[in-house]
TrEMBL record:
Coiled coil: none annotated. The lineage of its organism: Eukaryota, Metazoa, Ecdysozoa, Arthropoda, Hexapoda. Binds 1 zinc ion per subunit. Residues 31-314 form the Deacetylase sirtuin-type domain. This is NAD-dependent protein deacylase. Its cofactor is Zn(2+). Pfam families: SIR2. It is found in: Mitochondrion matrix. NCBIfam families: PRK05333.1.
Length: 314
C-alpha cells in the first residue's frame, strides 16, 4: 500500500476498492448550550400556529448536528479550532497553486462530506413544508441536506457543493461525476479523511497537494469551480431579488442556526423588520439579528424540533 510519505492523524490510507465504501458516523459540532424548556416549546408552537406562510432561513448551525462543523461557533467552530481560513474567490481565480490546493483538499474531503445525512431539523422542515406552512426554505448551507431530507422548495443562497461549473462557459457537472474524473487523473492516490470542514475540504500535507492533478473545463479549458459563493464573492443579484420577493410575500421569517454574521443573510432580517414581519430566531448564542427578533430561543435547533414533533419525524 502506497502512502506517499504522508503522516496525518486525520487521514486514513485505503486502497482504491475500499475508498468509496468508507463512511464515518456523524459527529456533533454544536457549541455548549442550555437544555430546552417547556416555555421554549410553547413559544415556538405559538409562532408556528400564528403564521401560515413562514419563510425559513437556515445556517450552518443546523448542519453541525449532522456532523459538519461551522466557522464561528464558540469553542467548536473552525475559527476556534484552527488558524486555517477558507479560500477567497479572487485567490482561487488568480492562483493555479491555490486552486490545486483547494481541489486536492476538496477531493479528499468529498467522500466524508457527501455521505453526511440530514438530522431532525431538516426532517421537521420537510414536515412543515408538506403541511403547506412554509413559503420557502432559504439556506446559507451548501451541503444539500434539505434536499436529502425531501424538502422541495429550497433556495440555495450560497450555491451547492454538489455542482461544479466552468467560470468561462456554461459547462456544469455533478460533483460525484467530477470525483470520478479526479479519481482517474490521480489513480495512485488512496487517501480518505476522517474529518471535514464547513466547505467540505480538509487539511493536507504540501507534498500531497503538489502531486495532485486538476483538470480544466473539457469544453473550453477554463477554470472549474464548485458552484458555491466563496468568501469575497457576491450572491448573484437575481437570487437576492428572488429571496427579497419571498420576504415580501411571507407572513413571517424564521431563522434557524445562523449567527447572521454575513450580510448575505442578514439583509433579509433588515428587510423583514422594515416590513414589520414577525421574526423568530433559534440559534445557540447571540446573532446579528437579535435586536429585530420578536422571539429569540438560545437553544439547539434539533432539540426544539424533536420536542415539537417527538416521534413523528422520519
Amino acid at each position: 500500500m502506497q502512502s506517499h510519505g504522508l503522516h496525518c492523524k486525520s487521514l486514513l490510507f485505503l486502497n482504491s476498492s475500499s475508498r468509496n465504501n468508507f463512511f464515518l458516523s456523524s459527529l456533533s459540532f454544536a457549541p455548549k448550550h442550555k437544555p430546552v424548556t417547556s416555555e421554549d416549546i410553547t413559544l415556538m408552537k405559538i409562532f408556528l400556529s400564528s403564521n401560515s406562510k413562514i419563510l425559513v432561513l437556515t445556517g450552518a448551525g443546523i448542519s453541525t448536528e449532522s456532523g459538519i462543523p461551522d466557522y464561528r461557533s464558540e469553542g467548536v467552530g473552525l475559527y476556534a479550532q484552527s488558524t486555517s481560513r477558507p479560500i477567497q474567490f479572487q485567490d482561487f481565480v488568480k492562483s493555479p497553486r491555490l486552486r490545486k490546493r483547494y481541489w486536492a483538499r476538496n477531493y479528499v474531503g468529498w467522500p466524508r462530506f457527501s455521505s453526511i445525512v440530514p438530522n431532525v431539523t431538516h426532517f421537521a422542515l420537510r414536515r412543515l413544508e408538506s403541511e403547506m406552512r412554509l413559503s420557502s426554505i432559504v439556506t446559507q448551507n451548501v451541503d444539500e441536506l434539505h434536499r436529502k431530507a425531501g424538502c422541495k422548495n429550497v433556495v440555495e443562497l450560497h450555491g451547492s457543493a454538489y455542482r461544479v461549473i466552468c467560470l468561462h462557459c456554461r459547462y456544469e457537472v455533478h460533483r460525484h461525476l467530477f470525483q470520478e474524473t479526479l479519481n482517474k487523473l490521480n489513480p495512485s492516490i488512496s487517501i480518505v479523511s476522517q474529518s471535514v470542514r464547513p466547505d467540505g475540504d480538509v487539511d493536507l500535507p504540501q507534498d500531497f497537494v503538489e502531486q495532485f492533478v486538476v483538470p480544466n473545463c473539457p469544453d473550453c479549458s477554463g477554470i472549474l469551480k464548485p458552484d458555491i459563493v466563496f468568501f469575497g464573492d457576491n450572491v448573484p443579484r437575481e437570487r437576492v431579488d428572488f429571496v427579497k420577493n419571498l420576504v415580501n410575500t411571507s407572513d413571517a421569517l424564521l431563522v434557524l442556526g445562523s449567527s447572521l454574521f454575513v450580510f448575505s443573510g442578514y439583509r433579509f432580517i433588515l428587510q423583514a423588520a422594515e416590513l414589520e414581519k414577525q421574526i423568530a430566531i433559534v440559534n445557540i448564542g447571540e446573532t446579528r439579528g437579535d435586536k429585530h427578533a420578536h422571539l429569540k430561543i438560545d437553544k439547539k435547533c434539533g432539540e426544539i424540533f424533536s420536542n415539537l414533533f417527538e416521534n413523528e419525524l422520519t
